[in-house]
Amino acid sequence: xxxxxxxxxxxxxxxxxxxxxxxxxxxxxxxxxxxxxxxxxxxxxxxxxxxxxxxxxxxxxxxxxxxxxxxxxxxxxxxxxxxxxxxxxxxxxxxxxxxxxxxxxxxxxxxxxxxxxxxxxxxxxxxxxxxxxxxxxxxxxxx
Amino acid sequence: xxxxxxxxxxxxxxxxxxxxxxxxxxxxxxxxxxxxxxxxxxxxxxxxxxxxxxxxxxxxxxxxxxxxxxxxxxxxxxxxxxxxxxxxxxxxxxxxxxxxxxxx
Lengths: 143, 104
What we know:
The structure holds two protein chains of two kinds. Chain A has helices at residues 2-12, 47-58, 63-70, 74-93, and strands at 19-21, 29-30, 42-45, 97-100, 105-107, 111-114, 119-122, 139-142.
């Protein structure tokens, strides 16, 4: 009986699908302003939660469209999104810092940075990437 | 290039789709033109409509401070190159950079 139970547990553990995001935020998070006392904590917002919040509340997409862009089902998207809102509300009410990072993500677009022009651009190939502005080769890959 | 005014000294607009003007620069002839963005007031999918308009003009590279996710998806599908400007840069700066590289 016990062996069967253990087996079942193994089957239940499922690898989570990676969520697609277009661009990672270029900053690490937020800290509360004008606090009288030391911070009451920190909230960790994952990249996929940040992305879901951007898609819904900044770009005003419907959950279904946003889910498609992130490569997840609509219910999964809604779950990520509500978790994001919950965390943001907690941070605002409890005066906690927001740290953005972590999560299971994959970049939908590869971004590169030209050191000479100081601009970012996308490219599909990883080989011989050249800056579209100066055609220079001093390029950094932004993950 | 997404801009806020119809002048080459204007900064690149931080949001593609919601900017007031587009500066169209022909890298071959060096001609500069401005197109007004008539979709700024549409509630959603302003970017998508803009992409259609720019595609008709034969644009192959777009420059802006930020692109919507749907727009990134769309432009990538059409094989249009995206350039994201992080710090304040004017239209002139971008044009000069492309000119310089041609002279080299």
